[in-house]
Amino acid sequence: MGSITGVETSKVADKIWLVFQALGDIAFAYPFSVLLFEIQDTLKSSPPENQSMKKAAGIGISIQTFFYLCCGCFGYAAFGSSTPGNLLTGFGFYEPFWLVDIANVCIIIHLVGGYQIYCQPIYNVADRWKSRKFPDNGFMNNFYKVKLPLLPKFHVNLFRFCFRTIFVMSTTGVAILFPYFNQVLGVLGAILFWPLTIHFPVEMYIVQKKIEAWSRKWLVLRIFSFCCIFVTLAGLVGSLEGIVIQKLH
User: Fold this and answer.
1) Domain ranges within the chain, ordered by starting residue
2) Which keywords annotate this record (predicted)?
């Protein structure tokens, strides 16, 4: 059973922390702006890249919203106020086993590809830094041909191999140290939401359209950005509080 106010708490403060944490989780659902320009750079005209990306982003957001609403609504309909953050592992019910196993395999396939895509901006920053800082260093810039049995030849850069391996190991270690699904997602969502999803696009729009300072449109955009800063800070504080509470328990 559930209630119109969601999860019941013994204190008003606990309810506020949960609401803040939920804001971080919602913000995490839409970090696609990190990849927007990476994908747009690979497109060719015509039609113009910005038109293609506008249509693709609209379709992607609509589908993403539909699936998130389905997960939230069906989860609440089934489990009420006890709905876990992770529907596959958080409620102690694992039957039918084959269905849960298939779902987990699909998640693994999805995350392996998604991890690579979402890490590309970080990898690109590291590649540009090493090319600019050490232009003549063989370890940083040379590529070597490698041939493995039953596989075609491919090129390997030692810096990329070492950096990306260490990066993946580090993020995996952090995930093991803090295995708190909703709280960690809230922290990541809050950190990424305002700087990359709101501030950067808004500033680009103001410069591109040459919007005058203190005009009506300028004020609306600034107020919008300020409200999103509050969402980011609230989600970050609430999620960090959730991690601390979980760690203490």
Assistant:
1) 12-248
2) Amino-acid transport, Auxin signaling pathway, Cell membrane, Membrane, Symport, Transmembrane, Transmembrane helix, Transport
Q: Are 57 and 32 in contact (CB under 8 A)?
A: yes
Compute the Cα dihedral for 118, 119, 121, 122 and give only its sign: positive
- The encoded tokens of residue 45 equal 């005209």
Residues 189 and 28: beta-carbon distance below 8 Å: yes
**Of 124, 131, 132, 162, nearest in space to 35 by CA:** 124
- Residue 215, pLDDT above cutoff 90: yes
Q: Summarize pLDDT for 12-30 with one digit per residue, the tens.
A: 888 899 889 888 888 887 6
The SS3 assignment for 198 reads helix
CA 37 to CA 56: how far, in whole Å? 13
Q: Which DSSP letter does residue 80 get?
A: G
- The two structure tokens encoding residue 82: 């006890």
What is the C-alpha to C-alpha distance for residues 199 and 175, in angstroms, rounded to an integer?
A: 28
